[in-house]
Design goal:
single chain; alpha+beta; nine-stranded mixed sheet; two-stranded antiparallel sheet; 15 helices
């Protein structure tokens, strides 16, 4: 399967299938996963729904995906609910996550390379050919979309688990919404070490990672800067780092560069002011000393809740952020966009999985079934995001639910050269 069209799937003989004899093995792993991903793209939510989606396929479609031909029934049959359940519960989740993440990262790299070639071509077509320095300048930290990283509780599975928690941490591209990787958080720890473990797997070299105040940790910053060769933006500093938070509150941002933004959505008006302070000067030495920090950002948010066009409530909030990007590497406008767009992981992944795919109400908990279903959702979301004519995932779900052949072609056919 071509990486630009579908997800490269694990080997058909991997995992639970490897321990079974040939007797009774009717469906290859690739067939089952193609049907499951196709059903997910069409909006089907669980293993029972996967079997219903497969049963709706005609004989030609079943043959195309490699379904079993029954000599007694003289037709191609599809996996039932038990087959989907057993395979998705037994499939090694690290293998599935790596396959989906590797495809998404490859797609991201191809898009970045296309943009880079376009910029260089524009420079070549200019009056003067670009110098070597100009060519190198096109490879900055904003050459590829930043990546937001955050954890999510799979609430339905957590309620059924003796440890009381099934959590996943994921990395999502700003803008595109591609899910670059996912990792389950061990029940005896939290998402802080899990994020440090996930970051090197996302291949973040030369990119920017944004994350929540929970991860305002020296070791997390060190992992990103040294092991991943990436930049970071901590979108908030709170009381988990009391000394850094206090020093940021005491800093004078009066004469610093400032950016103002304004939004009106969700029944409210929100105005934001960003003051950017360079921390490289001697007067800031040792202050807000998070590992590798180069700039501090003071953010003031004024929210006005509207009802029938009138303001009914006004709130003001002040927060602070830190970044390893220098003033030469990121402008105030770019830093404001990075902090603002960090919410993409909530809007373009967590919200879609919770409400569109109903993950929080799904009560499956057996073995690795919750994580593998979440991985299928990630794959479906990433594939839909690549179809740029769909603005929302539910619209794409309804489109593909009525066009089963189109979703199968999307997964199985290579793109035109």
């Amino acid at each position: 399967m071509d990486a630009t069209r579908g997800v490269p799937l694990p080997s058909p003989g991997y995992g639970a299938w490897a321990d079974r004899g040939a007797r009774g093995k009717r469906y290859s792993l690739q067939t089952v996963l193609v049907l499951a991903v196709a059903a997910r793209i069409a909006g089907y939510r669980g293993v029972t729904a996967f079997a219903q989606f497969a049963a709706l396929l005609d004989q030609d479609q079943r043959q195309a995906v490699g379904c079993f031909f029954s000599p007694s029934k003289q037709c191609y049959t599809t996996p039932n609910t038990t087959t989907f359940h057993n395979i998705m519960a037994a499939l090694p989740p690290d293998t599935l996550d790596e396959a989906v993440g590797a495809w998404a990262r490859q797609l991201s790299e191809q898009a970045a390379e296309d943009r880079r070639k376009q910029v260089l071509q524009q420079q070549t077509d200019a009056a003067e050919p670009p110098s070597a320095q100009a060519r190198a300048s096109t490879l900055g930290p904003f050459d590829r979309p930043p990546v937001c990283m955050d954890g999510k509780d799979v609430r339905g599975a957590s309620k059924q688990t003796p440890e009381g928690r099934r959590m996943l941490v994921a990395g999502v591209e700003h803008g595109t919404g591609l899910v670059l990787g996912q990792l389950e958080i061990d029940s005896k720890t939290n998402e802080i070490p899990a994020l440090r473990e996930l970051a090197p797997k996302l291949k973040l070299a030369g990119r920017i990672a944004t994350y929540d105040p929970l991860h305002c940790q020296h070791e997390t910053a060190r992992v990103l800067l040294e092991e991943c060769q990436a930049h970071y933006v901590v979108t908030g500093v709170k009381d988990n780092q009391p000394t850094i938070a206090r020093e940021l509150r005491e800093m004078d941002f009066t004469h610093c560069p400032m950016v103002e933004t304004y939004d009106k959505e969700h029944g409210r008006r929100e105005r934001r002011w960003y003051w950017i302070k360079d921390l490289s000067g001697p007067q800031c030495k040792g202050k807000a000393n998070l590992y590798g920090r180069k700039q501090a950002i003071r953010i003031k948010r004024e929210r006005r809740k509207l009802r029938r066009g009138k303001v009914v409530k006004t709130s003001v909030e002040v927060s602070y952020a830190l970044t390893s990007l220098s003033p030469a590497e990121a402008s105030p406008e770019q830093l404001a966009d990075l902090i603002r767009n960090h919410r993409h992981i909530e809007n373009r992944l967590h919200y879609v999985r919770d409400f569109t795919y109903d993950e929080d109400r799904c009560r499956v908990y057996v073995r690795d079934l919750p994580r593998n279903l979440a991985c299928l959702s990630n794959a479906a979301i990433s594939i839909i995001r690549c179809q740029t004519h769909f603005r929302y995932v539910p619209v794409a779900n309804r489109h593909f639910a009525a066009r089963q052949q189109e979703v199968l072609d999307l997964l199985m056919q290579s793109p035109n050269p």
